Amino acid sequence: MEHFENIRNVKKLFKWKAEEVNELKTALLIAGVIFLAGINFVMYCCLRMASQEDEYLEKMYNREEQENEIRDDAC
Q: How far is CA 10 from the centre of its chain?
């Protein structure tokens, strides 16, 4: 019998009003949207930095090729 009393007590703890459930759903939805927005921002920043680094390396490679051509022409 004691087991059933414990189950009843647990059920009483988790009886939430519909209003409380809706507030919780809203809060979780907002938290999820903020979380996804944060992840997307980090991904955007990483891709932007990678693009800038790629452009920088391409310029350095082109500059090195030009310098090699000048040295070859001078010799």
A: 37
Q: How far apart are the first and last CA of the chain?
A: 101
CA distance 18 to 25: 10
The DSSP code sequence of 7-66 is: HHHHHHHT---HHHHHHHHHHHHHHHHHHHHHHHHHHHHHHHHHHHHHHHHHHHHHHHHH
Distance CA 63, CA 28 (A): 53
How does pLDDT run across 43-73, given as a tens digit for each residue? Answer: 999 999 999 999 999 999 988 888 887 777 7
Length of the chain: 75
DSSP single-letter state for residue 74: H
